[in-house]
Each structure stands twice: as structure tokens, then as C-alpha cells.
Amino acid sequence: MSESGANPLTAGKITGPYGVKGWVKVHSFTDPEENLFRFGAWQLQRRGSLETVEFDEWKRHGKGMIAHIAGVDDRTLAESFKGLSIVVEANSLPSLEEGDYYWHQLQGLQAWGREPESEGDRVLLGTVDYMIETGANDVLVIKASDGSIDDRERLVPYLPGDVVTRVSLEEGVIEVDWYLEE
């Protein structure tokens, strides 16, 4: 991972209270979902500011997860956390193998594709805005940017070695084998 500094990342969300003893339902954006509870130093984003919290217990419940926030021992107080984003620092994420990237590292990269009639001529498709998890594979959502070939938004499968031919975080570039008509 090529992170420098401590950048806050949204790693999950509290979706509502659970029971009467201060537990909350949690939707984790990590894979696997349990990784959310391995980071530590959790913060909740409330009205533009961050407040530090501690999850002192957590467990799987049905298809989701529930957690207890230290010091929150009743449903009414737990309800006040509904809808808050769970934030962690980027530098608390584990390092990845060479060639693997966190989604947040790909966001903002310039996406370059190919002209169908030419051999190797690259064109700027736009900038990676965000990614979508589809089940089969992740998808890059590329939005038009200054200098891009047109004003279209493109959905490009994130398939390293097949569709994604090169990623350079240092250059701020992702190259895709994706023709303009696709």
C-alpha cells in the first residue's frame, strides 16, 4: 500500500439500534466484513466532525453484524448513532501484496483507453470516481474530466491483466483495454 499520512476512510456505517442494551447494527464496507473490527481507532462522523469511539464487542447476526459501543448501554442512546459513518485512518489498513490496491487508492486516477482504429493510441476517458461491487467483479465508474475524449460516464470492469493493463499510483494513472464504443 502506498499511503502516506493519515487519511480518514469510511469503512462502514451504523444502520440502527439493535435490542435494548446499546448495541447497533453495522454495515461494513470491508472485505471480509469482520476486518472493520480489526482496525481499532474508530471514529464516527457526525455533522462534519469526527468523534472517537470504541467497539468493545461485536458479532455476526444473521446476514449482518452488530456491535456494542463502549459506554452506550441503552437503546435511546444507541439510536442517536443511526446513519453515522464509521471512519478509520488509511494508515491503519494492512499492507497489500504488489499489484493489489484498496478502492480508495484507485479513486481519482486518470483512466486511459484506446482508440478502436489505432494501434496503441491512448485517449483520456476520464477520472475514476468510485467503484461498484457487482459480485462477479468490481466495476470502475469513470466520469468525464478536463481533457477527456467526451462527456460520457463509463462503467469498466476492474479485471487486472485483462481489462486493466496498468496501474501507477505514483503517476496517478490507470490504463484500460477499453475501446471508446464499448
TrEMBL record:
GO terms for biological process: ribosomal small subunit biogenesis; rRNA processing. Keywords: Chaperone, Cytoplasm, Ribosome biogenesis, rRNA processing. Residues 11-90 form the RimM N-terminal domain. GO terms for cellular component: cytoplasm; ribosome. Residues 103-178 form the Ribosome maturation factor RimM PRC barrel domain. It is found in: Cytoplasm. It comes from the Bacteria. GO terms for molecular function: ribosome binding. Gene3D superfamilies: PRC-barrel domain, RimM. Its main location: cytoplasm. Binds ribosomal protein uS19. HAMAP family: Ribosome_mat_RimM (MF_00014). An accessory protein needed during the final step in the assembly of 30S ribosomal subunit, possibly for assembly of the head region. Essential for efficient processing of 16S rRNA. May be needed both before and after RbfA during the maturation of 16S rRNA. It has affinity for free ribosomal 30S subunits but not for 70S ribosomes. NCBIfam families: 16S_RimM. Belongs to the RimM family. The PRC barrel domain binds ribosomal protein uS19. This is Ribosome maturation factor RimM.
